[in-house]
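Researcher: Good morning. I'm working through a list of sequences from a screen, and I'd like to move beyond sequence-only analysis. For each chain I'm collecting a predicted structure so we can compare shapes side by side. This is the next one on the list. No need for commentary yet; just the structure.
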Amino acid sequence: MKSTCFFILLFTILVAFRSGDSTLEIGAPIPKAEVVLHDVSGREITLNEARGSNGLLVMFSGNHCPYVIRNQCRTVNICTYALKHQVGVILINSNIAQQNNEESLDAMKAYAAQQQYSWFYAIDRKGEIADAFDAGHTPECYLFDKNGRLTYKGAIDDNPGNADAVKVRHLYNAMNEMLAGSAVKRNTTTSLGCSIRRF
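Model: Good morning. Structure tokens for this chain:
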């Protein structure tokens, strides 16, 4: 009983610490921009190197999350759209607890090939990128402008569970406003999905 209470207390402290002052605010620069990540292509890449001339889309993702699977087509569509408009794209897998099995780099390579990714899909082996972003779910999106400043964070759209019921495409709208040089009207939305498996 005492050990159970101890672990509950420890977990609460860790969650409180992670979600305290570490929230990435709109206008913030790309965090951990020079940390070297391993991409499924075999290349080493940093977030700065992944940037395009018009910005960077960072999406936390995985291979087996039901929400990621439901968003497969939407992920491919928005990432392709971003690249077409010179916004760099990098998907990041921070599921530390599963990196020896279904979220391993080899599993990521197979998944990326199946989905025909033409952008970076990198492993965050220590979870430091997810921690720096205060990311909690997959999929979860962060859009930076050409100056490397955060313009949008949150969900791809307003219905991650059902593509047929989408009414507002948050990320698409934010990207278009950013590319037009306008302020993003709705720069923060709630991201729903699978929890990033840190431990």
